[in-house]
Amino acid sequence: MAKNHLIGLLLSTEEDWPSAFEALIREFSPTISYGGEDHTFSTERITYEPFDLRAVPRHSIVIERLSHWYSLPREWLKKIALMNDVYLLNNPFTFQAMEKHAAYCALLRLGLKVPETWMIPHRLPPEDERFPETSRRYNLPFDLREVAEKIGYPLFMKPFDGGAWVGVTKVSNPEELMARYAESGPRLMHLQKAVDFDVFARSLSIGAETMVVRFEPDRPMFDRYQVSHGFLEPQIGAEVVTIGRLVNAYFRWEFNSCETLVADSEVFPIDYANASPDLAITSLHYYFPWAIRTLAKWCIFCTVTGRRMRLHQDVARYNELADRPDLSYEEKLAGYRGLTEEYFETERYEEFCAEYLPEIDEAMVRFISSPAFDAILVETVIATFPPHEHERFIAHYRGLLGAWVMDQS
Ligand SMILES: Nc1ncnc2c1ncn2[C@@H]1O[C@H](COP(=O)(O)OP(=O)(O)OP(=O)(O)O)[C@@H](O)[C@H]1O
Ligand SMILES: [Mg+2]
């Protein structure tokens, strides 16, 4: 009898990628003979309800998308990780670091080129009856303009734990600085030196694979990811991939996006803690099939080979490399790359995919060319854009996905 691996999807409101993922697993439907057993796969959307802490879950792996804001499923995830060894993408025990601040600190320690960054006290302090007295004793007066002077203009003011560009502003002079600070209210902020970049590279990593895409942050959402191949020198491209994987291996994230700015052949990481990376067809378009297929491959690899999720970090190994004065930046990067390959079992994953999943690429092309996928695409456009734009955007996305299909042959 085959062993079936149930892939749980813990979702919020998104419909596009889950439908595509479910369809791929259903249509492709591989049976893999591995370790003397046949393995099959199915998916299920997880519902939120009372649960017995002793209950045994049926899932082998869970792709989770909302536990960063909804504690009921987050606590269920912790239970199934601690008690039942269920594999999680991502593991909520690492979430304390799933904000910009901890990720900046980690990469600074590792010697990466994080732009000059300061944390500044809240404009409006926490509402707590103990605060006035605490503040009277310990909060030092400070001159925000002096801090900004040290960093230099232009700079960005942004929430220490932010996402989705909320509260992020560019500041070019002391007047703007004070106005933006007044607006920041109760939000704890960083000031960060602006990088005058040539190329913005946004990479999405899923398990052992990474896709680096040219990104245009100032364009409308549908036009930010650019279809562009070979836009980075190979060496810079490799550095961008290494940084994305390093962040993930370090924090034990397996599903995350990483933003790096390239200026004069130097790579500056600016944002790389995205617990629930953007997977929308309307953002990723051409790169969407890669993401869904890679998610399926990684889930299959982890469940079939019995890869164990690591609950906790092992930062000492990274820090040992970071602290070696005899190593250059390039040598450290090469060392980190080795650690990430070890963590993600890159070689074993590649061999596994070549041996057991040689048809998955073709299955993805068939699916993306099918009426079933087109229906998902049309539904997504209708749900995302106003009626007068439907026709235009359906044609736009069909064109991009069609180009992907062409490029695969
Ligand atoms: N140091 C910087 N130099 C240049 N541009 C920056 C810098 N920091 C932020 N930006 C710009 O501001 C945007 C938003 O900043 P950031 O990515 O840090 O915030 P976010 O809230 O995580 O945004 P998102 O969720 O869209 O990624 C970036 O995509 C980039 O265009
Ligand atoms: Mg960002």
Describe the structure.
There is one protein chain. The chain has helices spanning 16-28, 71-84, 100-109, 131-138, 144-151, 174-184, 234-251, 281-284, 288-305, 315-322, 329-344, 346-356, 360-368, 371-384, 390-408; strands at residues 3-10, 32-34, 37-45, 59-64, 87-89, 117-120, 155-159, 169-171, 189-193, 199-206, 209-215, 225-226, 255-263, 266-271. The chain has 409 residues and is α+β, with helices and mostly antiparallel strands. It has three domains: 3-95, Rossmann fold (3-Layer(aba) Sandwich); 99-113 and 196-274 and 308-344, 2-Layer Sandwich (D-amino Acid Aminotransferase, Chain A, domain 1); 116-193, 2-Layer Sandwich (Dna Ligase, domain 1). The strands form three sheets. A five-stranded mixed sheet has the order 2-3-1-4-5, sandwiched between helices. A hairpin with a 2-residue loop joins strand 13 and strand 14 (266-271). Helix 1 packs across helix 13, helix 7 crosses helix 11 and helix 14 runs antiparallel to helix 15 (390-408). The chain is globular, with a radius of gyration of 23 Å. The protein binds adenosine-5'-triphosphate and magnesium ion (MG).
SSE layout and pairings?
Blueprint: E1 3-10, H1 16-28, E2 32-34, E3 37-45, E4 59-64, H2 71-84, E5 87-89, H3 100-109, E6 117-120, H4 131-138, H5 144-151, E7 155-159, E8 169-171, H6 174-184, E9 189-193, E10 199-206, E11 209-215, E12 225-226, H7 234-251, E13 255-263, E14 266-271, H8 281-284, H9 288-305, H10 315-322, H11 329-344, H12 346-356, H13 360-368, H14 371-384, H15 390-408
Parallel strand pairs: 1-3, 1-4, 4-5
Antiparallel strand pairs: 2-3, 6-9, 7-8, 7-9, 10-11, 10-13, 11-12, 13-14
Helix pairs in contact: 1-9, 1-13, 1-14, 7-11, 10-11, 14-15
Bound molecules: adenosine-5'-triphosphate and magnesium ion.
Magnesium ion binds next to loops.
